[in-house]
């Protein structure tokens, strides 16, 4: 196939491959990640997927007929090679220069080519109808190291994961929004999957192609990180133990599929565990030990030895055992404290005791506690509890005291407030939740000084510079100049800002963070205060010049240029994003800009309308008709609610559940 140049590429130096911990979102700045040339291998008649990858990455693309046609001059361009052509020299490609992704459409009715799957760096499985662009966006952003869920999760006071114990994950999809409330990750138990054979029986081990489709279906329906687990027969699973290489084959493929975590049992030969560690890319390894004998003791040299062996090749060490007496829960807590004291740099320990006697340890464990849900067909292990049950136990023990949490502001201006009580009920939290009007000056201070104050969401936000009763401010709140969330931290309060995170989550829903790097953006607003969160969100994505309409830029906003005339608008190249922070009655004023930057064959990328309430015109419809990916306040508000709940109660409520609870289903 002759090389077809569709758009010009920018030349850049040949990069080195980053380590697995590079390129994460650290703090507020998006990382660069893997800067190698992205090469997409596509099936016959499936070249369209190359353009989608390129669009998600914000890059041009071209098609080539061989890996030898890809050179350093292709940096900044996505390359597509048809599968039949890629097979000829994929193994001899320059792996320092390029990252190869095998994109396979499962609708073709055949499994991926085994040789291409093995030789590629990663593999993306997708369906044409329906096509989930956000799935591709998450996959490419994660595998290229631009996002890292782990970096955020290890800083949380408590983390949970739910295990899908279904023989076919399709059974769980309709309830997944509810099942995953309170979970920080979702586990797919590969050993529990049942693949039907032509004669009606089930395969003893599900095939890689079947497992791959199951992972694809799960990722299409959840934004949570996926834990890929192949549990052996000795540890209450169904995977055979006579062929350790089988585990390597499946676990390495999970890395290629972009699973955020892989569960690697510590009984596997060290060579296999070491190879997986060296090849894990941006995936993280949970080094797992389970004991069902009833003879394992926490205060023993064996326990210390197992932890030492597990930590060699683990980002998280998981130790789970069956116990015979209540006192063994306290022995575990002493063991946990010793491990933490002797290993201050980690890896973190997730340890629980199984059975009814061990449920106390499940409540006390803070790192990736496995949880269940009443809607699951079976529990993954004896004694598992739901998130609501754990929260109830913590409340009974005095570890989760009842607090008063508030939504402060006019009821109409706080659409998130109606979701909070539903979320609290689903999580089993003991807190009271109230919506209050802002009232007179000083009324907020009166609420937060009450002894049972547990936090507040405030809309419109407070001026960060004038609230002397809030002793600490997050970097975001201080920079933006607005506090929309007050969080209790010990005996003190922290003023934070969740709105900018909601805006950034919206911006990166269908695009990789790197798509925004050094690109132009336009913000319309009636005031700098209303635009500040949007500016901060764009800056966190390494945006280029921000052009403004209707307001004076905040002091922190370097690299901002105002539009002063029609001529100044005409001098600007195609912006990657337009954000309107105009009030509802003025929101129609953005429509001429949307149309202007869609002329002459141009195509907009991202438009976000932050207006909430009755408005003139329909800028979202105009944006969509003009080729923009358009998002409204329902999207940003839902994402902001997710971030607000994480700040206030330290627990995760998925975006999909927030939309579901609001009466507007996501799908």
TrEMBL record:
GO terms for molecular function: 3-dehydroquinate dehydratase activity. It holds the Pfam family DHquinase_I. InterPro entries: Aldolase_TIM (IPR013785), Aminoacid_DH-like_N_sf (IPR046346), DHquinase_I (IPR001381), MurA_subfamily (IPR050068). Residues 1-25 have a biased composition (Polar residues). Residues 1-27 are annotated as: Disordered. PANTHER family: UDP-N-ACETYLGLUCOSAMINE 1-CARBOXYVINYLTRANSFERASE. This is Aldolase. It comes from Mollisia scopiformis.
